[in-house]
Amino acid sequence: MHKTCFIGFASTVVFINFILSTDAFSVTPPPLLQRLVATRGGGIHTDVSFSLHVFSNSNNHDDGGGDEDVFDVEQARKRLEGFWMTGGGGEESFSSELQQQTMERPTIRSPTYSPAPHKNPELDVVIPPAPPLTTIERERREAEIQLLGQLVEGDESVTDLWTLWFSERGSDAAQQLVRAEELTGEGPSGWQRAEEILRDLIEEHGVYWVEPVNHLATLYYMQGRVDAAETLCQIVLAVKPWHFGALSSIVMIYAAQANSEKARLWAASRLPAFAPNGANRRRIAWAEQAVLSAKESFVNAEKRVQDLFGEPDDYSVEQQTDMWDDDAWQ
């Protein structure tokens, strides 16, 4: 059963404790997920934020107007269950499994693809309005929109987007997030400290810096706490519907829950792979929808600033205009 949570900045710690106390999963963390390498959308990533889609069938080729890749939920669920029950056979077997998975063709085919932009399914969480934009946050939003638009040209902007998302609260906070990521990659011995760091970051900066929330979702998934991971993943997507890491993550979460309907729905929202010699119509449609969503979020944030502080003072505007008038200097 899904949980609908209203998350405020002051109540973040209470919310996290609620997630911990109501999580129904208690399984031994799978050792094969101690260090994760996934290939998707921009080369090989050791970033653990990519860990939640390591068993998914990525959109490995452009449709060219034909068949579309579809996520095989039952296959992923069986693999997840097998890994959790057997311990996965260590990192070597995980790497072998990953290599096999990335080479597989989809086993289910969809109807002929339509390049119309695809919107995400409904979310089960409610979050408060974002705080007012600062000058630097406005600049970051503009840079994010530009980078999202560049996804139609290839994967170069994928790394830039991850860097931007990591650094949204400055270098010190980014360093703490990187440290939490390193601890997560160390396996169970580092998970408790990683969780402490991530929860502290969420408490300090709120849920509108989504990367700590995204990484905590990754950590919970690795521990088998998939209900908590689902809620956190939905929070990320409520703030950034275009967050391609969380879009892949939530598919794997629903697969782990054996919720094939939602897994398939969300699989259609993942970032399609870029084919250098393909038409990339799905990729273009995805990027266009992401830009539209990001612009809409930006406009709404600007409106909130206006609602809080009112319209610009007419005298101030006229005075600023006069300063740049050539006649004013004569």
From TrEMBL:
Residues 102-129 are annotated as: Disordered. It comes from Seminavis robusta. Residues 102-113 have a biased composition (Polar residues). InterPro entries: TPR-like_helical_dom_sf. This is Repeat-containing protein.
